[in-house]
Amino acid sequence: MGRNSPRVCVQKISPPTSHLSPLTSQLGQAKFCSGLLNNAGKGVVPLHKVVWVTVRGTRTDDLGEQETVELGTKGDYFQKNESFYIVYPESEISGLAGTFTAWKVEPARVTLNKMGTAEVRQVFEEGVHHRANYITPYGNLPVGVLPRKVEVDLTEVGGSIKLEYELEMSRQKIGYHALSITVEEV
Length: 186
What we know:
The chain is mainly beta. It has helices spanning 22-26, 31-38, and strands spanning 7-8, 47-60, 66-80, 83-89, 99-105, 109-116, 120-125, 130-136, 139-155, 158-169, 172-185. The chain has one domain (7-185): Lipocalin (Beta Barrel).
């Protein structure tokens, strides 16, 4: 594989067999998912469907070298009020088996939550520097992002999120990242 050739990883999950997908069922410990569905009895009927999620990330280092990784998987898609939620399990391919990724998407802010063997809560707001603590089985790592672009185009049928940001670890800039997340009906 050439220096600038993208690495592509694809993860596949079995389709759901009930009104709750296996992904949501496995997230019993993630209270926000069950909370969204429980609110249906209170007059709020949230959108909930199984979708295909494609995450494509490109990292550019200080020398201009690029590395691209793409992941495709089935996930759960919720809407509550003005926010959309995208939830999917990570795999061994991503190096995060046992971790669930959840994106809370608001019109001007995107929040990444990872729960499981790795944990982090990272906020992306255009022009706002946010720091977080990335917890892994190997220890904790302080990370920060300074987004230059936060573009959200989601509706009830899916859409996309585009993030462009500088990433730092232990207060050291390690590169510029472009992340594209697309959500499509299955």
